[in-house]
User: What shape does this take?
Amino acid sequence: AAADLRAAIGTPHAQEALTAIGRLAQLREALAVLAVALAGVHGRLAWFLGAAATALAPVLHWRALPDAQGPTFGAVEPTPEQYTDAEDAIRRLHSALARLSAV
Assistant: This one.
């Protein structure tokens, strides 16, 4: 899971160069990686990954497109800081998982 998270979210500079749609797509990909990893583990690691997924759940309510074309079903446009915070959280999660797998 650690390598897949690393692949989903690039460096801060690379992420900031992406469009909002690109950034949101990569954050959703990271959440998908978490969901797949969570499906295959039990115990403390499952609890840890579940808590991480829960903390990142607001990403699922974000949108990168304007709402001019119809209902948004409660989705909101995140601020640039919210994108950065979520991406930093994924990087920290990657580091934690990499340390755990090295043990």
